[in-house]
Amino acid sequence: MTLVAGVVAVQGNVAEHVTAIERAAASVGEDVDVREVREAGVVPDCDLLALPGGESTTISRLLRETGIASEICAHVDDGEPLFATCAGLIVASRDARDDRVDELELVDVAVERNAFGRQRDSFEAPLEVDGLAQPFPAVFIRAPAIDDVGDAEVLATWDGRPVAARDGPVLTTAFHPELTGDPRLHRLAFFDGDETR
């Protein structure tokens, strides 16, 4: 059976997420049809969904205007997996600590935007992530940090701050795994790729 994957394509690293999902699926022998989501009506056909980074205020506004926001919430309510990265984490959180962001409230965390600095402060770090046997080469670009954790499970921290979490079917990262060429986090998000069991 071919799985249908959606990459929300209102902004952000869409092509990179498409490639990462295809790599992750291939690594576990799954067939996947990846679709870019730019309008309402696509998400209900998706088995799995990625919400890329970009600019969180713009993403949240476009999701509401297009009607995609309610479809993402229904997707998660049905127990289907969502992988939200960087600004996607901010939009998926319960509290972005910014009145300009209309949160989806899918992950029980509050976030601090640009917690690790601006664009010029971008860096890569070997990150220990629960579920991965070896460190992940995490790319931080204007990255947020998780500031307050409710019922979500923290999967990774950097410099003492949570930067990856899981809440039910939603996996979130403050960094950009799609920029690394390493499919393990997409595999963990979508195909139960826990290497530590």
Brief overview:
This protein has 197 residues and is of the alpha/beta class.
Explain what this protein looks like in three dimensions.
α1 (14-27) packs across α5 (184-190). The chain has one domain (2-190): Class I glutamine amidotransferase (GATase) domain (Rossmann fold), CATH 3.40.50.880. It has helices spanning 14-27, 56-66, 68-77, 87-92, 184-190; strands spanning 2-8, 31-37, 48-51, 82-85, 93-95, 107-112, 123-127, 136-140, 145-149, 153-158, 161-167, 170-173. The protein is 24% helix and 32% strand. The two termini are 26 Å apart. With 197 residues, the protein is an alpha/beta fold. β7 and β8 (136-140) form a beta hairpin. It is globular. The mean pLDDT is 93. The protein contains five helices and twelve strands. The protein has a seven-stranded mixed sheet with strand order 2-1-3-4-12-11-10, with helices on both faces. A three-stranded mixed sheet has the order 5-6-9. Strands 7-8 form a two-stranded antiparallel sheet.
Secondary-structure map with pairings?
Layout: E1 2-8, H1 14-27, E2 31-37, E3 48-51, H2 56-66, H3 68-77, E4 82-85, H4 87-92, E5 93-95, E6 107-112, E7 123-127, E8 136-140, E9 145-149, E10 153-158, E11 161-167, E12 170-173, H5 184-190
Parallel strand pairs: 1-2, 1-3, 3-4, 4-12, 5-6
Antiparallel strand pairs: 6-9, 7-8, 10-11, 11-12
Helix pairs in contact: 1-5
